[in-house]
Amino acid sequence: MIDGVHAKHFTGAGVVIHHSDSLGLIAVDRNTVAISISDIMVSFAAYPIEIPGQVIFLHPFHYFALVAYDPLTLGVGASVIRASKLLTEPALRRGDSVYLVRLIDSLHAKSRKSIVTNWQAINICSSDFPRYHAMNTEVIELDTDSDIELSGVLTDEQGRVQALWASISSQLFGCGKEGDHQFVVGIPIHLISQVLEKIISGAPGPFRLINGIRRPMPFVRLLEVEIYPTLLTEASNYGLSDRWVQALAEKDPERRQVLQIIGCFAGSKAETLCEGDMILAIDKKPITCFLDIENACQKLDHSVGSDGMLNMTIFRQGKEIDLMVGTDVRDGNGTTRMVNWCGCIVQNPHSAVRALGFLPKEGHGVYVSRLCWKSHP
């Protein structure tokens, strides 16, 4: 019960994205695998067996986790299970046809043809105590009831996976509706395939012991700020010049938006950014969506002698400003250590705490995750 996790047991569907003689990998949403310190059991629709799994990667922003399993424990089932083919291009757009494939309680697949109705930034309000939530991510909505909590995948006619149909948890307040609310959206598969490619190629990162083999798990370079889009019409009312409104609209005529800072993570190297800043450009190139920022961060990883700084143009309090903004490199380990002392569960401040701006000035500290009370007779 760390990182503000709101329950003890979670169940959901994932998709096998890699299957070899020594390693199997499953992509699953963070409402199914919430934290790294957990016991995982994996059941397969293709073969009747249940085996243990191991959490190996939790994405800091994009609400997915990767779970490893040992193919040797599958026995003859190892020859039956296949990894799904991932289709990263072209990106899904409004009006595209997809197949929504989900697992019902009996582990039988259920599918239906659906239409993409929307593609928008996800916005999850903070809960009453800090816990992980998706941010800086565009998700897919369908012409189906999003309150149906069955997770799964979105595929094309050939069965190639285009998105993870993910269960999202948020907390409701007021109007007599207090409590956790579950809904489902699509997470584009290219966000997952980028991490998968790094794992398969052995990209540098912290080593994890997986199925008895030490393997490097990739780092992720991030601009550690929470961002949400603002319509260009609203940005114009705040004083954004017609020149920039036109430039951003021409760059992305479908979205017609500018990205605005909601808040900076405590301890982040992006401390030169402030709440309310609008991101106009990186290296003088207009920025209109989260993918633009991620591509700029990845470009730093491939630049020889890079100092990890982004040359950004922002709009702040009526003025256009050029800033050098730092990026952070994070792993996907999540919280790996906790101490239970007299019913007080302590840990390092996790990302949801830092997103609220809380971190001692030393850059590290102890966070009390939970208190366990004992009643006396």
Automatic annotation (TrEMBL):
InterPro entries, A to Z: PDZ_sf, Peptidase_S1_PA
PANTHER family: PDZ DOMAIN-CONTAINING PROTEIN C1685.05, PRO-APOPTOTIC SERINE PROTEASE NMA111
Name assigned to this protein: PDZ domain-containing protein
Organism: Aegilops tauschii subsp. strangulata (Goatgrass)
